[in-house]
C-alpha cells in the first residue's frame, strides 16, 4: 500500500492534460513520369472526417478558394493549370450561391516539363480554407515540395537539359505552417494558422519556461502519467497475480532460459501492440472532430462525467465491468496454437481477463488523451502498456526477483477502492466544466470543494479501516503504508477546508471553479467589503479575479481605457480553461503583477466559451464560417481568430487606444518574473 501515494498524482494531473487541436488537412506529394520530359505533380489532400476544403473556383463573396503557387524556376516549365477532382456541389444557403467543395480525399494535379538533368526541387504553396458543419478555421498556407534526383539520361530539347527517369516517387511534405500551441493543462484547445501576415511568435511553437516546446512537453507529460496509470493497474487483483503465473509458464515451458526470456519479451511486446492499436482506433474515431468540443462542449463533459462515474462505482465494488465470456473462450482456444501467434493470443487474453480492473484506468486515459491532438491516445496507451509489459520481461530475465513480490491478498482490492475514490473526484471536474460553460452556478466553488472534502474524507476513513466495503477482506490491523497514505489524504482534506472561506488553494488551482465563481467571492463574512468594491468599480466593469476591475465587453473596456489614458490588456479566456485559472490563482496574485493589473492597465476578459445568447442586434454573419454568431463566446472567439490567428486560451494582448499591439502577445506563462517583465514592456511602450 505504501506505493499507492505515487498514483494519486496521476489522477490529479491527468485532467490537466491539454486538449490540443491539430490541423484537419494534410498534404502529401508524388511525381509521375507521363512521357518524354513530361511529369505530373500530384498533391494528395487528406481531409479529416466531417471537414471539407473548397474548390479553386468560388464565386465572389463566398469562402476562400483553394489556390496553388509554384515557385518559378529555369529547371521546369508548367504545362497548363492545376486540375482538381470532381468534388461536390451544393447550394449554400448562407452564401446564397452554388459552391464546390472536397471532403475525405482530393488529388490535385499539375503537369510540368523538365528542363535539366541536375537534381532540383519545386517549391509550392497551398492556400486553403477548411470548414465543418459547426465552424471554419482561418485561411492558411502550407508549403509543399517536389524533389527530382539527378539523372544521367539526356533531355532532348532546345536547352540540352536531361530528363529524370524516376516514377511514382512518394515524397515527404514540408509542413511548417500549422503548429500546435501549448495547452498542457488547458481545457480549451488551440490551433495556430500561419499565413503571410501571421506574427512571427505564432509561427513557432510556444516555448515554456523550461525551454521545451509545448506539444513535446504535453505528450511527455501524458506519457509519464499514463505510465503511472499502468503501474497502478499492475497492483490490481486482475493483473498482479498474473505476473508470477505467466512468467513461470514461459520459463518452465521453454527449453532454455534464453528462450523463456525471449517468449516473455515477445509477450510484453504484444501487450504494448494491443493497447497501442486501441489508442490508434481512438485517434481515428475522434480525429479533428473532437477539437474544442471535448473541452467546452456541455454534452461531451456530461458524457465524460457519466463514464468516469460508472468506472468509479465499478472500482468501489458496486458491479464489475466484464467483456463477454465468449470472447475469452475464443481467445483461449487461439492461444493454444503455440509459437508467436499463440503468444499474441495469450497477451490478448490478459487484456480481456484484466478488463474489469484496467478498463476504468484505460478509459480515463482515453477520455483525456482523445481530447488532445493527433497521436495523444497512442502515446497514452504506449505509456500505459509499457508499464504493464515491463514486469513480464524483467521477471523472466531475473526470476529470483519474484521472491520479493508481495503475496496476493486483500490489499489488491484496497488498491481498486482507492482508485475508485480518485475516479469519483476526477469525474466531478467534468460536471463542473459543463456548469461553468452554461454559467448555471449549480456547482460553485464551495459546493465543489465540499464534495471533494467529503470524497477524500471517506477515502481517509477507508484507509484507516473505519469504513469497509463488501469485497474487502476483514483485518485486525492496518499496514504502515496504508496508515501513511491515510495521513496524506487526511492532510489534503485539512488543506482544502480553508478554501470554503476563500483560501486560494494554489496546489489544486484549475480543479475547483475560480474564486469569483462562488457564493461569496471575497470569502464568507466579507459581504460589506464586496459591496464597497462593487460600488467603486467603473461603469460596465465587474470584480474579476483577485478583485481586479474587469470588463467583459470589448468596446466598453476600450472606451474606459481611453478615458483614464491606460493601455488595454485583453485576456482571451474560458470558463473551462484550467491554465487560465492557474494564471489567475498563481501568477496574478503576486504583488508586483497584481499592482500592474490593478493600476497600470485596463483589463478586458473575453470568455470564448460563454454560451449566453447575443442580443439580436449583435448576431452577425461570421467572416470565418459564414454562419450566424449566436453566442457571446462565438463573438470573442471570432475576434481572436481573425485578429491574432489563434484560438488558444489563455491568450494575453497589450494594446494601445488605436488597437495596435504594444508587444508580442503572451500565452500561458507560469513564470511570474517573465510575465511581469512582459507587462512592464507593454506599459513602457504605451508611455513612449
TrEMBL record:
<feature type="transmembrane region" description="Helical">
    <location>
        <begin position="410"/>
        <end position="427"/>
    </location>
</feature>
<dbReference type="InterPro" id="IPR028250">
    <property type="entry name" value="DsbDN"/>
</dbReference>
<feature type="transmembrane region" description="Helical">
    <location>
        <begin position="219"/>
        <end position="243"/>
    </location>
</feature>
<dbReference type="Pfam" id="PF11412">
    <property type="entry name" value="DsbD_N"/>
</dbReference>
<dbReference type="Pfam" id="PF13899">
    <property type="entry name" value="Thioredoxin_7"/>
</dbReference>
<dbReference type="InterPro" id="IPR036929">
    <property type="entry name" value="DsbDN_sf"/>
</dbReference>
<protein>
    <submittedName>
        <fullName>Protein-disulfide reductase DsbD family protein</fullName>
    </submittedName>
</protein>
<feature type="transmembrane region" description="Helical">
    <location>
        <begin position="485"/>
        <end position="503"/>
    </location>
</feature>
<feature type="transmembrane region" description="Helical">
    <location>
        <begin position="447"/>
        <end position="464"/>
    </location>
</feature>
<keyword id="KW-0732">Signal</keyword>
<dbReference type="InterPro" id="IPR036249">
    <property type="entry name" value="Thioredoxin-like_sf"/>
</dbReference>
<keyword id="KW-0472">Membrane</keyword>
<dbReference type="InterPro" id="IPR003834">
    <property type="entry name" value="Cyt_c_assmbl_TM_dom"/>
</dbReference>
<feature type="transmembrane region" description="Helical">
    <location>
        <begin position="264"/>
        <end position="286"/>
    </location>
</feature>
<dbReference type="Pfam" id="PF02683">
    <property type="entry name" value="DsbD_TM"/>
</dbReference>
<keyword id="KW-1133">Transmembrane helix</keyword>
<keyword id="KW-0201">Cytochrome c-type biogenesis</keyword>
<feature type="transmembrane region" description="Helical">
    <location>
        <begin position="374"/>
        <end position="398"/>
    </location>
</feature>
<feature type="transmembrane region" description="Helical">
    <location>
        <begin position="340"/>
        <end position="362"/>
    </location>
</feature>
<feature type="domain" description="Thiol:disulfide interchange protein DsbD N-terminal">
    <location>
        <begin position="37"/>
        <end position="145"/>
    </location>
</feature>
<feature type="signal peptide">
    <location>
        <begin position="1"/>
        <end position="19"/>
    </location>
</feature>
<feature type="domain" description="Cytochrome C biogenesis protein transmembrane">
    <location>
        <begin position="222"/>
        <end position="432"/>
    </location>
</feature>
<keyword id="KW-0812">Transmembrane</keyword>
<feature type="transmembrane region" description="Helical">
    <location>
        <begin position="298"/>
        <end position="319"/>
    </location>
</feature>
Amino acid at each position: 500500500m505504501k506505493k499507492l501515494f505515487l498514483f494519486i498524482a496521476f489522477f490529479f494531473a491527468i485532467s490537466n492534460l491539454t486538449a490540443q487541436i491539430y490541423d484537419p488537412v494534410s498534404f502529401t506529394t508524388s511525381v509521375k513520369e507521363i512521357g518524354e520530359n513530361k511529369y505530373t505533380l500530384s498533391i494528395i489532400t487528406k481531409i479529416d472526417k466531417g471537414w471539407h476544403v473548397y474548390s479553386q473556383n468560388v464565386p465572389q463573396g463566398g469562402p476562400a478558394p483553394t489556390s496553388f503557387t509554384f515557385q518559378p524556376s529555369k529547371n521546369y516549365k508548367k504545362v497548363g493549370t492545376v486540375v482538381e477532382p470532381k468534388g461536390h456541389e451544393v447550394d449554400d444557403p448562407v452564401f446564397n450561391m452554388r459552391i464546390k467543395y472536397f471532403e475525405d480525399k482530393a488529388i490535385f494535379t499539375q503537369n510540368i516539363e523538365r528542363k535539366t538533368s541536375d537534381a532540383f526541387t519545386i517549391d509550392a504553396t497551398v492556400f486553403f480554407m477548411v470548414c465543418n458543419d459547426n465552424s471554419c478555421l482561418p485561411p492558411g498556407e502550407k508549403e509543399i515540395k517536389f524533389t527530382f534526383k539527378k539523372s544521367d539520361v539526356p533531355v532532348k530539347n532546345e536547352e540540352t537539359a536531361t530528363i529524370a527517369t524516376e516514377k511514382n516517387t512518394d515524397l515527404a511534405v514540408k509542413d511548417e505552417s500549422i503548429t500546435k500551441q501549448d495547452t498542457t493543462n488547458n481545457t480549451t484547445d488551440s490551433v495556430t494558422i500561419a499565413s503571410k501576415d501571421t506574427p512571427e511568435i505564432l509561427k513557432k511553437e510556444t516555448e515554456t519556461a523550461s525551454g521545451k516546446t509545448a506539444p513535446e512537453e504535453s505528450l511527455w507529460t501524458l506519457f509519464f502519467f499514463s505510465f503511472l496509470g499502468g503501474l497502478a493497474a499492475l497492483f490490481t487483483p486482475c493483473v498482479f497475480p498474473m505476473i508470477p503465473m505467466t512468467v513461470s509458464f514461459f520459463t518452465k515451458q521453454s527449453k532454455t532460459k534464453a528462450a523463456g526470456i525471449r517468449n516473455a519479451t515477445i509477450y510484453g511486446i504484444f501487450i504494448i501492440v494491443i493497447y497501442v492499436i486501441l489508442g490508434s482506433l481512438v485517434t481515428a474515431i475522434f480525429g479533428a472532430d473532437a477539437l474544442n468540443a471535448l473541452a467546452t462542449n456541455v454534452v461531451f463533459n456530461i458524457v465524460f462525467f457519466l463514464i468516469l462515474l460508472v468506472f468509479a462505482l465499478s472500482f468501489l465494488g458496486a458491479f464489475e465491468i466484464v467483456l463477454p465470456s465468449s470472447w475469452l473462450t475464443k481467445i483461449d482456444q487461439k492461444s493454444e496454437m503455440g509459437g508467436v501467434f499463440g503468444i499474441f493470443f495469450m497477451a490478448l487474453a490478459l487484456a480481456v481477463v484484466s478488463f474489469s480492473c484496467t478498463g476504468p484506468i484505460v478509459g480515463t486515459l482515453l477520455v483525456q488523451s482523445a481530447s488532445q491532438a493527433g497521436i495523444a491516445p497512442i502515446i497514452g496507451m504506449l505509456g500505459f502498456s509499457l508499464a504493464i509489459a515491463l514486469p513480464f520481461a524483467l521477471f523472466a530475465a531475473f526470476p529470483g526477483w519474484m521472491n520479493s513480490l508481495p503475496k496476493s491478498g486483500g490489499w489488491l482490492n484496497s488498491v481498486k477502492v482507492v482508485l475508485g475514490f480518485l475516479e469519483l473526484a476526477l469525474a466531478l471536474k467534468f460536471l463542473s466544466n459543463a456548469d461553468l460553460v452554461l454559467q448555471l452556478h449549480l456547482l460553485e466553488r464551495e459546493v465543489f470543494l465540499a464534495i471533494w472534502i467529503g470524497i477524500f474524507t471517506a477515502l481517509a476513513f477507508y484507509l484507516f479501516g473505519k469504513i469497509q466495503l463488501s469485497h474487502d477482506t476483514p483485518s485486525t490491523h492496518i499496514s504502515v503504508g496504508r496508515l501513511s497514505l491515510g495521513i496524506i489524504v487526511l492532510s489534503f482534506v485539512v488543506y482544502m477546508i480553508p478554501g470554503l472561506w476563500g483560501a486560494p488553494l494554489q496546489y489544486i488551482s484549475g480543479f475547483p471553479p475560480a474564486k469569483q465563481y462562488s457564493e461569496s467571492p471575497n470569502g464568507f463574512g466579507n459581504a460589506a467589503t464586496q459591496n464597497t468594491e462593487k460600488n467603486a468599480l467603473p461603469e460596465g466593469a465587474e470584480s474579476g479575479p483577485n478583485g481586479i476591475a474587469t470588463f467583459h465587453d470589448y468596446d466598453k473596456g476600450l472606451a474606459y481605457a481611453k478615458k483614464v489614458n491606460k493601455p488595454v490588456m485583453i485576456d482571451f479566456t474560458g470558463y473551462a480553461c484550467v491554465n487560465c485559472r492557474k494564471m489567475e490563482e498563481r501568477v496574478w496574485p503576486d504583488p508586483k503583477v497584481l499592482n500592474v493589473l490593478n493600476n497600470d492597465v485596463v483589463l478586458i476578459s473575453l470568455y470564448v466559451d460563454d454560451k449566453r445568447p447575443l442580443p439580436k442586434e449583435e448576431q452577425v454573419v461570421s467572416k470565418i464560417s459564414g454562419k450566424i454568431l449566436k453566442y457571446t463566446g462565438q463573438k470573442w472567439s471570432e475576434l481572436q481568430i481573425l485578429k491574432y490567428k489563434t484560438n488558444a486560451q489563455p491568450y494575453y494582448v497589450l494594446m494601445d487606444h488605436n488597437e495596435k499591439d504594444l508587444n508580442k502577445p503572451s500565452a500561458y506563462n507560469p513564470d511570474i518574473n517573465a510575465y511581469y517583465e512582459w507587462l512592464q514592456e507593454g506599459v513602457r511602450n504605451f508611455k513612449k
